[in-house]
Amino acid sequence: MAVNVEQMTTEVVTAAGDLPLTEAQIERLVQLILRRLAEKERETRYSNEANAIRRGVAPGGPVGR
Q: What is the pTM of this model?
């Protein structure tokens, strides 16, 4: 039997204060955020270390004196 659907409406309701995500989805999101923060911290640390090395070997720096 063929059924023709001309229009379909979907209604989604969430109660105030409830998140529309499952606990598993929230956990994945938290893990992603923590990974990104760790990557950003690592990039900043590497950049700071590289700058310290450059300052140390630059003419007039602590090593070049």
A: 0.51
Tell me the three-class secondary structure of 12-35, residue by residue.
CCCCCCCCCCCHHHHHHHHHHHHH
Q: Is the pLDDT of residue 34 over 70?
A: yes
Place of tokens 């309701």: 13
Non-local (6+) Cβ contacts of 35 within 8 A are none
65/58 Cα distance (integer angstroms): 10
Span 49-64, average pLDDT: 71
59 sits in the region (left: phi over 0; alpha: psi -120 to 50; else beta) called beta
Percent of the chain at pLDDT exceeding 70:
86
